[in-house]
Amino acid sequence: MSAPRTLFDKVWDAHVVAQEPGRPAVLYVDLHLVHEVTSAQGFLALDERGLMVRRPERTVATMDHITPTDPGAYAQGLEEVVTKTLSTLEANCRKHGVRLYAVGDRRRGIVHVIGPELGLSQPGMTIVC
Question: Model pTM?
Answer without folding.
Answer: 0.85
